[in-house]
Design a protein that fits this description.
CATH topology of the largest domain: Outer membrane lipoprotein wza fold like
Largest sheet: 5 strands, mixed
Helix content: 10-25%
CATH architecture of the largest domain: Roll
Membrane topology: Multi-pass membrane protein
CATH superfamily of the largest domain: Outer membrane lipoprotein wza domain like
Strand content: 15-25%
InterPro entries: Poly_export (IPR049712), Poly_export_N (IPR003715), SLBB_dom (IPR054765)
CATH class of the largest domain: Alpha Beta
Radius of gyration: 26 Å
Order of helices and strands: HEEEEHEEEEHEEHEEHH
Number of helices: 6
Shape: elongated
Subcellular location: Cell outer membrane
Protein name: Polysaccharide export protein
Distance between the termini: 8 Å
Number of domains: 3
Keywords: Cell outer membrane, Ion transport, Lipoprotein, Membrane, Palmitate, Polysaccharide transport, Porin, Signal, Sugar transport, Transmembrane, Transmembrane beta strand, Transmembrane helix, Transport
Number of strands: 12
Strand order of the largest sheet: 7-6-12-9-10
């Protein structure tokens, strides 16, 4: 019996020493600037290089690209979109080369309406960015890149679209990465803080990346279950205590 206990202890110690998680951006001493993540009700997405844009003009297919008014809606599968090139330009039917870099959707709509008035009396125009997306990685059921139509999305909304958190999700140390030009900002979110949940459930922008790390005992649980099947850290400890 004593020999069995020594063997089990030896195995557990080796497991604890070798347990390493694959969590990203984990730093206990990090200093996080949350200002870039404060809620902004005036925020609007601005068109960037490599964006895919569809243009819809009601009743005028010859002016449209991937029209939402047509038989086939704007869809990347059909290739019905305009790519914003390295100079921030797109080629619009009839209108020609147009710089759209840094424009909001309402601003681009107005530009198109004013240009189309040369041929149409009352142009009805819609513009859509097809690749507005938020990426979520780590301990969620369906890690994925999620397409979003609206500008204002919250952290919990995107988590729900990814199927919710997995059992081992570390809700105290969720990371959100946001790039603004050459600067990359990182937010550290603690969703266990019920008092501050409104500030922790931050507003996300298209292009943000969410990383949900795992709890430290995940690898240990996985390793111990290969020796004592169907156990967790707690149940394994109970089994060990029962050996005395």
């Amino acid at each position: 019996m004593r020999t069995n206990i020594i063997i089990v202890y030896g195995i557990l110690i080796s497991l604890l020493v070798s347990c390493k998680t694959q969590n990203l951006l984990v730093d206990k001493n990090e200093v996080v600037d949350m200002k870039p993540f404060f809620f902004d009700n005036t925020y609007q997405y601005k068109i960037e290089k490599d964006d895919k844009i569809s243009i819809s003009v009601w009743g005028e297919d010859s002016y449209s690209v991937g029209s939402v008014y047509g038989i086939y809606n704007s869809n990347e599968v059909y290739g019905k979109w305009l790519l914003v090139d390295a100079n921030g330009n797109i080629e619009i039917p009839r209108i020609g080369t147009t710089n759209v870099l840094g424009k909001t959707i309402p601003e681009l709509k107005e530009i198109l309406k004013n240009n189309l008035k040369e041929w149409l009396l009352y142009p009805v125009v819609d513009v859509k960015v097809l690749n507005k997306e938020i990426t979520i990685l780590g301990e969620v059921r369906n890690p994925n890149t999620i397409l979003v139509d609206k500008d204002h999305n919250t952290l919990l909304e995107i988590v729900s679209k990814a199927g919710g958190f997995e059992f081992y999700a570390n809700l105290k140390s969720i990371k959100v990465l946001r790039q603004n030009g050459e600067n990359v900002y990182v937010a550290n979110i603690d969703l266990t803080n019920a008092v501050d949940i409104l500030n922790q459930n931050i507003q996300l922008h298209p292009g943000d990346i969410i990383i949900v790390p795992s709890k430290k005992n995940k690898e240990f649980d996985k390793r111990i279950s290969t020796i004592i099947p169907f156990t967790t850290t707690v149940s394994a400890a109970a089994i060990i205590m029962g050996l005395f």
